[in-house]
Amino acid sequence: MTPEELKAACLAFNGAEETFPFGPETSVFKVGGKMFAISALDGEPPLRVSLKCDPELAVRLRAEYPAITGGWHLNKRHWNTVVLDGSVPRRLVDEMIEDSYDLIVAQLPRRQRLALDWPGEHRPKAQ
Question: What is the model's pTM?
Answer without folding.
Answer: 0.91
